[in-house]
Amino acid sequence: MSNYSHAQKKISPALLCDGMQKLGIAKNGAMDASLMPIDEQKFMVGTACTVDTEDGDNFPIHVAIYQGKPDYVLIVAGKNSMERAYLCDLLARAADAVGLSGIVVDGCVRDKLGLKELAIPVYSKGIM
Questions:
Q1: CA distances (Å), origin 128, targets 81, 105, 108, 111
Q2: Which residues make Cβ contacts (< 8 Å) with residue 74, sequence separation at least 6?
Q3: Is 111 annotated as a binding residue?
Q4: Do 116 and 38 touch, CB atoms closer than 8 A?
Q5: Which domain holds residue 50?
């Protein structure tokens, strides 16, 4: 983990957002309020890596996970698709093994209990 990421973990999200506001970052760097954690005890810090997909297609997510780098946060730009799950505990387990710091899904996930058992934090707009 970089020194920068290590320092960020010690700062509260509110202070980080205040700093981003002063830098002119949109929405103060805050996520959409409809994105909720699967486990509220977990948090993530890392460089964002975005994968674009739609209609519940998780193939691009497979590719992004296996090309992922430690300490990165995978952002799944799923266009708010709520009809099929983009992520399951199996994919999240692979992301955890690669060393990703977290996963944020603009859409649904499944296997809530399995996701909670993993060390990797996951946020999503819905659970199936």
A1: 12, 13, 7, 8
A2: 49, 51, 61, 64, 65, 68, 95, 100, 102, 103, 104
A3: yes
A4: yes
A5: 33-127
Pair 82, 38 in one domain: yes
* pLDDT (tens digit per residue) in 91-101: 999 999 999 99
Give the Cα-Cα-Cα angle 27, 29, 33 (nearest 5 degrees).
65
The domain tally of the chain equals 2
**Domain of residue 102, CATH code:** 3.50.30.40
Query: pLDDT tens across 13-53, in order?
Result: 677 777 777 887 776 666 678 899 999 999 888 889 999 99
Q: 111 Cβ partners below 8 Å, 6+ apart?
A: 88, 89, 90
Please tell me whether 71 is known to bind a ligand.
no
